[in-house]
Specification:
Layout (H helix, E strand, L loop, with lengths): L2 H17 L11 H9 L2 H5 L7 H14 L1 H19 L7 H9 L4 E4 L15 E6 L2 E11 L7 E7 L5 E7 L5 E3 L14 E11 L3 E6 L8 H7 L4 H22 L6 H20 L9 H23 L9 H11 L7 H11 L6
């Protein structure tokens, strides 16, 4: 990165950090921080529109997550929509939408988890698509959409009667689309993640980004799947970013408490090693196991935030203390896009079965 951009990014991260404590409930959607990221060129860069390398992208995500995990998580879902739009055959026809999304003037999200993990055990697809004149109508319920009540566009996965699937770009103001206000959660509530109900929502063929085809998500680019899939690299980057936030608290405390020096040194070495592995995984020919990385990131963020709480003592339990927020947010990585092998590894670690 050039020096000017590094300075601009550092200033952006500081601004996000100073606002991060405000994003607590469904009434606290971080529109200001999202727009700041767009105006700084970060959204376009992370979407691969400004010549950023994969390494620069993951380094930026780590820094943003260290400053403000809620806003950064929303950005990952926004990028999921933007990248799929850019990679589609409709990109040239949707140039205005791409510009609005990349600048932060509009925010997008994705509703595709039901095509991969969420509710796949049900006999009937949770979101169906029916051919009609000029396009498709969508019906059903998307179980999880970040920014359900706040975003402007949603990339929706749906299944046709012949079992083929599509990805459709849906205007959030379309008739028949009914978002929930945001689920009540112990952490990340301001992300306004909730179900979205679809009642005969019309989508023109122009807005079909992929499909109809079997297993439509398998047709995405390797880069999109590597960064955004279940257990993907960006998820590990966000976990590491939050862990760095907790480590920053420990480092500050260690300037006044000698007993923490060895602990901080050990944690710092682990963070450096994991960051190097995550950065190495961005290389095209990398053989780094992404599930193993995710397991390590999950375990490290749980331990670092717990250590920060132990250090903060009773003050950490106060609602306005950052460490309490970090600990709650750390639990998020145990459920967000967490493949079963990663979950199993964490359960084994907690039960002391890692060597079994």
């Amino acid at each position: 990165m050039d020096q000017n951009f590094e300075t601009q990014l550092a200033n952006l991260e500081l601004a996000l950090y100073e606002r991060a404590s405000r994003w607590r409930t469904v009434n606290d959607w971080p529109a200001e921080s999202l727009l700041s990221c767009g105006q700084a060129g970060v959204l376009a860069g992370l979407a691969g529109m400004s010549g950023w390398s994969a390494l620069r992208q993951v380094q930026t995500l780590i820094g943003l997550a260290r400053a403000d995990l809620v806003t950064t998580f929303i950005i990952t879902q926004h990028l999921g929509a933007l990248k799929r739009l850019i990679a589609s055959d409709r990109a040239s026809e949707q140039a205005d939408i791409i510009e609005a999304l990349s600048s932060g003037r509009s925010i997008g999200s994705v509703g595709i988890s039901h095509l991969t993990t969420s509710r796949r055990h049900l006999d009937r697809p949770v979101v169906t698509a029916s051919p009609v004149d000029g396009g498709l109508t969508l019906d059903g319920c998307i179980p999880w959409v970040t920014g359900a009540s706040q975003v402007d566009w949603i990339v929706v996965g749906a299944t046709l009667p012949d079992a083929t699937e599509v990805l459709a770009l849906v205007d959030a103001n379309t008739a028949g689309l009914q978002p929930g206000p945001g689920a009540k959660m112990i952490a990340m509530e301001a992300s306004c993640t909730d179900a979205v109900h679809l009642n005969s929502v019309f989508v023109p063929w122009l807005s079909i980004l992929a499909g109809p085809e079997l297993n439509v998500l398998s047709g995405g680019s390797r880069a999109v799947k590597k960064s955004s899939g279940a257990g993907g690299l960006q998820t590990s980057a966000l976990a590491l970013g939050l862990s760095f936030a907790a480590l920053r608290f420990l480092e500050d405390e260690a300037t006044r408490r000698d007993n923490l020096l060895g602990i901080v040194e050990k944690f710092s070495a682990e963070h450096t090693q994991l960051r190097q592995r995550i950065e190495s995984a961005t290389e095209a020919d990398s053989a780094v196991d992404l599930a193993e990385l995710r397991t390590q990131a999950n375990q490290l963020v749980q331990r670092t935030t717990a250590a920060a709480m132990t250090t903060a003592k009773g003050a950490g339990l106060m609602v306005d203390h950052p460490v309490g927020r970090y600990c709650q947010q750390a639990f998020f990585f145990l459920v967000w896009s967490c493949p079963q092998p990663v979950a199993d590894a964490h359960l084994c670690e907690m039960a002391g079965l890692m060597d079994a």
